[in-house]
Amino acid sequence: xxxxxxxxxxxxxxxxxxxxxxxxxxxxxxxxxxxxxxxxxxxxxxxxxxxxxxxxxxxxxxxxxxxxxxxxxxxxxxxxxxxxxx
Length: 86
Known about the structure:
Elements: E1 7-12, H1 20-28, E2 46-52, E3 55-61, H2 72-84
Parallel strand pairs: 1-3
Antiparallel strand pairs: 2-3
């Protein structure tokens, strides 16, 4: 199979407020919500799909670690469940 026919999915992970959503918006041209005050703006997985050099790329925005809403284990489970369903 030609690599260009495959979709590449990348989970963007990090601590709360590190710029995950902003990075995805800049890289993909999307408009995911970005929180401007301290705290988590992302509480569930959201994705942005775009094409790069003929390759379909999906950037997956994840809740931040250490935000007090979800534990690290809960965030990792969300990511794991998402990728197991692909």
